[in-house]
Write a structure and sequence with these properties.
InterPro entries: CarboxyPept-like_regulatory
CATH class of the largest domain: Mainly Beta
Radius of gyration: 26 Å
Protein name: Carboxypeptidase regulatory-like domain-containing protein
Helix content: under 10%
CATH topology of the largest domain: Immunoglobulin-like
């Protein structure tokens, strides 16, 4: 019987151990399907507002047991993604975001999940879609559309903002490239969560006009701390992820008689 000397046996043993570890990391070598759950993976697809594959969205698997230990990837040209989950026991929550540049302003948009439940290392399927409007499925009062805050001009005598009808006419395509519709919106009633606000507005550029319905008189509108135009209307974009008013994807307009 032949025996390897110690000086040759030790390196060989190390090589075999490394090979075994690498094989364990590679699994069975198959790519996980974005449609089927697979142990050890979060998978899914991301689509745009028209239901077409969306490339470049950021998907985050948030480890709910450990702070600042998120796993992050991006969707590919087919809108598909996969994230390998560590073997250690934990629970995860999946979210997705999209960075969009619109009229020279950067927006960070949350994408709507088809399932908000957590998952474990056993894996899960979570699909996301870019939504222009709608309430978050797991956060009451938060919307995928933008929020417009209505501020009374300091010298104005209009104290019933809930009686002002605002007309928003799209000036060009919306943020997703689609054609928007003219919107007629009013503030929520006093003491409501939407009082002094126009909530869940598809993000875009709008020409805005207003009228005080009880009196039928035109109401002038302008950008916050801006200048009233002669015709009383204003054309505005939403602020993106960096706003001077400590809000994201919002707009602030002032009104006066």
């Amino acid at each position: 019987m032949n025996y390897l000397s110690f000086e040759y046996a030790l390196p060989l043993a190390k090589s075999l151990l490394v090979a075994a570890l690498l094989a364990g990391c590679k699994g069975d070598g198959s790519e996980p399907s974005p449609d089927q759950p697979k142990k050890g993976y979060l998978v899914g697809k991301v689509t745009d507002t028209q239901g077409k594959p969306l490339k470049g969205a950021e998907i985050i698997a948030d480890n709910t047991w450990l702070y600042n230990s998120n796993l992050v990837t991006q969707s590919d040209a087919n809108g598909a993604y996969s994230i390998a989950l560590p073997a250690a026991a934990s629970t995860y929550q999946a979210t997705a975001q999209l960075q969009v540049s619109y009229h020279g302003t950067k927006y960070q948009l949350d994408l709507r999940p088809d399932n908000v439940e957590g998952f474990t290392q056993d894996g899960g399927v979570r699909n996301f879609q870019w939504a222009l409007t709608g309430e978050y499925p797991d956060h009451d009062g938060l919307f995928y559309g933008g929020t417009i805050t209505l501020d009374k001009e300091i010298n104005s005598g209009l104290y019933d903002v809930e009686n002002i009808l605002f007309t928003l006419t799209p000036d060009g395509p919306l943020i997703d490239g689609s054609t928007g519709k003219t919107l007629k919106l009013k503030s929520g009633p006093p003491r409501s969560a939407t009082y002094g606000k126009l909530a869940d507005v598809p993000i875009g550029r709008y020409r805005i006009s207003a009228v005080h319905e009880p009196s039928g008189t035109k109401v002038r509108v302008r950008n916050k701390n801006g200048t009233f135009a002669a015709d009383g209307t204003v054309t505005l974009d939403f602020y993106g992820k960096e706003s001077p008013w400590y809000c994201s994807n919002c707009m602030v307009i002032e009104y006066s008689e």
